[in-house]
Amino acid sequence: MFTVKANWNKDKAEEALLIGIWSDHKKLEGIAAVLDEAFNGHITELLREGDVSVMAKSVTKLHTFGIVGAKRLYFIGLGRRAEATYESIREAFGKAVQMLKREKREKAAIVLETFENDRLSSEKLAHAFAEAVVAGSYAFENYKERSNERDKKLTEITVYSSDSQTGAGLSTGHAFGAGINTARNLVNTPGNLLTPKDLARAAMEIAIKYGMEYEILEREDMERLGMGALLAVSQGSDEPPKMITVKYKGRDTWDHVLALVGKGLTFDSGGYSIKPGANMHEMKSDMGGSGSVLGAMEAVGRLKPKTNLLFVIPSSENLINGKAMKPGDVFTSLSGKTIEVRNTDAEGRLILADAITYAKEMGADYLVDVATLTGGVVVALGDCTTGALTNDEVFFKQVSQSAGHEGELLWLLPSHQPFKDMLRSSDVADLNNSTGRLGHAITGGLFVGEFAGKTPWVHLDIAGTAYSSKPSNLGPKGATGVMVRTLARLAMNFK
Ligand code: BES
Ligand code: ZN
Ligand code: ZN
Questions:
Q1: Is 349 in contact with 440 (CB distance < 8 Å)?
Q2: pLDDT 10s digits, 188-205
Q3: Of 57, 95, 349, 485, which one is the catalytic site residue?
Q4: Are the C-beta atoms of 294 and 206 separated by less than 8 Å?
């Protein structure tokens, strides 16, 4: 997909050439100056007149009429040098990629050095660009008759750069982008076409592709082991539940294991505590946590970090039938702790409870769970910020630094004792799965934390961030692939 070439010159034939342009340049330098000269100073003039925009994330296209080798120039506005961030440049790349996609271009080239500033190395820029190309040109292949006519795709990209790290950056960005799209595809798939067995198959396929070990527990295995919480949720469905685990061995010994646990609820009707009808169809995205985990698995498979990873996905539907769990029912989880189900719609924490316990049994030393867990987190943090909880500030710092590095927004919620006390309000069981509206993003997360115990744990509630009602510079509306980059970065840098 990407070819790195050292020397650009104005006679190189290209279909589409991407060039960065800062708003605070004094006069055109380097490549832009070369182009300007070829155009007898007209680019300077267009800039002065505002016909070529230097505003951050704007893209202006110029036809060259054969004056230089490139047929079309795409000036990507970057704003002021001092204000540019990794994320703003990544989005600017995304904007340009989407323009190329609309124009059905199959080939493009970029001069990477025109995007450089003091804070962004060629490697980081190459990463951002490759990621923007892969994730920014994403479209979900839907089920409409006409959309079966396949679009032309951007597949041949030349990156002009003389930096030796550019290739590495492109590979990382490509892998991260592929991971994001893996998550998006899973999350966008309707609930009838992605049931727990389909999710298990998707995990298996990635595991096999990259030579990872996997295990899928069936209902009978769960009964033998005592996974009462996951089994409780699946009672109401004809589709059998699956407990999916994949091991990635990046070290000689199976120690220092980082477990990534993702909620794989392939459809959440709420159960007997049924959800309102209006937006229930969006609950096909309730396996978003497992999407992020499998997206990270795809990226890891490509990049092969020296970290031991355990991927765990508890998967079930939450439906209603004569056997479904009911409010007031009590179940014994794999940990031995008993749970009173006060609300059948608080099912994510139930399946995660057994997944966390199982991850520890399989050797997890560190736990991150990712889940579309609560509507409460959407009210608190909106659709741009993922809510977090932790029992270990040092481990949380590693996770939040990974998020910061990738430009994903994360905010830590408090784990104060009164919230933990609320979980112990059942008269008949150790834990109550639903303590009401007050602080319920926090109590929901802390419920999962009860099963992590003393093992360092971070919870990521992506109920607001996994699915978007509007398109962005890096993709269409629908599944976002949130937290794939954070998890993949964490896996890459894990110490
Ligand atoms: N899957 C939902 C949470 C959710 C809400 C995800 C909105 C995405 C968008 C979860 O299982 C749920 O229903 N949570 C309840 C918990 C409550 C009953 C304690 C909620 O948030 O209302
Ligand atoms: Zn629910
Ligand atoms: Zn749910």
A1: no
A2: 999 999 999 999 999 999
A3: 349
A4: yes
CA of 353 to the centre of ligand 1 (A): 16
Record the pTM: 0.97
Q: How far is the CA of 185 from the centre of ligand 1 (A)?
A: 22
Beta-carbon contacts of 346 under 8 Å, excluding residues fewer than 6 positions away, are 273, 433, 434, 444, 447
The tokens for 406 are 């990738």
Q: Collapsing DSSP states into helix, strand and coil, what is residue 365?
A: strand
Tell me, yes or no, if 397 is annotated catalytic.
Answer: no
- Pairing mode, if any, of strands 386-390 and 410-412? parallel
pLDDT in tens, 262-314: 999 999 999 999 999 999 999 999 999 999 999 999 999 999 999 999 999 99
Residue 351's alpha-carbon distances to 282, 315, 327, 457, in angstroms, are 20, 8, 16, 17
Contacts of 155 (CB under 8 A, 6+ apart): 1, 106, 107
Confidence band, pLDDT 50/70/90 cuts, at residue 362: very high
For 155, other C-beta atoms within 10 Å of its C-beta total 12
Q: Give residue 298 CA to ligand 3 midpoint distance, Å.
A: 24
Q: What single DSSP character describes residue 483?
A: T
* Residue whose token pair is 């190329």: 100
Q: How far does CA 170 lie from the centroid of its chain?
A: 18
- Nearest protein Cα to ligand 1, atom 3: 374
Nearest CA to ligand 1 atom 8: 463
**Of ligand 1's atoms, which has the minimum distance to the CA of residue 348?**
11
Smallest Cα–Cα separation from 28: which of 17, 40, 16? Answer: 40
Residue 50: Cβ within 10 Å count: 10
For ligand 1, whether the C-beta of 367 sits within 6 Å is no
Please give the distance, rounded to the nearest whole angstrom, from the Cα atom of residue 275 to the centre of ligand 2: 8
CA distance 289 to 196: 14
Q: How far apart are CA 333 and CA 346, in angstroms?
A: 15
314 lines ligand 1 (CB under 6 A): no
Contact between 331 and 339 under an 8 Å Cβ cutoff? The reply is yes
Which residue's alpha carbon is nearest to atom 13 within ligand 1?
Answer: 345
Looking at residues 368-394, what average pLDDT do you find? 98
123 lines ligand 1 (CB under 6 A): no
Q: Which residue has the tokens 């150790």?
A: 430
At 147, the pLDDT band (50, 70, 90 cuts) reads: low
Q: From the CB of 286, is ligand 1 less than 6 Å away?
A: yes
239 lines ligand 1 (CB under 6 A): no
150 counts as catalytic: no
